[in-house]
Amino acid sequence: MSVLVIAKHELLANAKRKEFVLITLAFPLFILIVFSSSMGVILSTFGDVKAGFVDKSGLLSSDEIGEMDKIVESVNAGDISKKSFKVILVRYSSEEKAREDLIKGRIDGYYVIDENYIDNGKITGYTKKASPHPARILEKKLVKAMLAGKVDDRVVKRVVEGSNYEEYKVGAKGEVEERNFMSFIIPVGFAVLLLTSILTSSSYLLQGIAEEKESRIMEILLSSVTAEELLFGKLLGLGLLGLMQISLWIAIAFPLAASFAILSPSVFVIALAYFILGYAFYASLISCIAAISPTLKDAQQMLGFVILPLIFSMMFGEIAAVNPSSPISMLLSYLPFTSPIEMPLRFAVGQVEGYEIIISVLTLVASAFITVRIASKLFGLFALSYTKPKIGDVLKSLRSSGTSQ
């Protein structure tokens, strides 16, 4: 019963923290703003383009371009947007005239086809509005002009248009899903949310224990409950707090992910499971630090060594997103220090076998159980200690505690 009372207190007290409310509400908004801004920048490059070209090679005759010496093509932005736009290319007789119109804003850029294009393939662009499409369109027209009358029209068409490449992701049960730009962005962003929630909950635990030791409130608390009850109550309360936070973020992220048909509900189930286990593991490690640290400053100095693996797993998140079956990604998804981030990320972007999840979960469960046991022993031994013990003394005390039991 004492554990539940402590858990309720920790949950309610920390849920009212201004910084918790700010992180919980503002962080998804921050991610959304960054995401929307980056998408806006990307999509801004996909708009109608009017450019000129100067053909010094003489390959593009009026027959190739049209009577008006103007090329007009419709281009699709691809995966990022269903939006289509026009690229208009107008022939200029000289670079001077094209540059004059560029300076006056009549065109967005102009392209000069080298007179020795057949030998060097050189096209030089001068632009105000960056876009790769005009040069690609000119290249296709040049290829068509060079092959005209020399090979079959179907061959010309295939060379000009290139391959029609599509890529699909095959799931563990053989289901087929289309890959696109968002299949990389959303899982990585989701991993950031998971990392943030684990660190937020664990940091509150560290701060709470350290402050209670410094203010001697710990002595009053331990006169009413045991050290183990106090620790388990804190772990449960702050774990529920983190679960509420990540659940809210998932509720916000799911419609976005579903709108792109990227993430299935099973991804969110896996993420929640790894959050719970990851929190238990890291919170226990942080409890060990808090138990043997006489002040908050001492505890914070040691905290970096604990959270470094989580940061490390995010650094290698790109590898998991691009190649989830790589040896380094697989190894990191098994290690308890990195699996809470790495395995949900791998699961979201690629095929993960059932046995891999079982091995990873069992390893994390065993590690969390062991660290909780160690944390409870250290908490009982050093909760009322106001001097920083040496590592040798800590290990000796653990062995003595284990032997006495």
From TrEMBL:
The keyword Transport does not apply. Its main location: membrane. The keyword Nucleotidyltransferase does not apply. One of its GO terms (molecular function) is ABC-type transporter activity. Keywords: Cell membrane, Membrane, Transmembrane, Transmembrane helix. GO terms for cellular component: plasma membrane. It is a multi-pass membrane protein. It is found in: Cell membrane. Residues 18-375 form the ABC-2 type transporter transmembrane domain. InterPro entries: ABC-2_transporter_component, ABC2_TM. The chain crosses the membrane at residues 20-43, 184-206, 235-262, 268-291, 303-322, 357-375. Pfam families: ABC2_membrane_3 (PF12698). This is Putative ATP-dependent Na+ efflux pump. It comes from Archaeoglobus veneficus (strain DSM 11195 / SNP6).
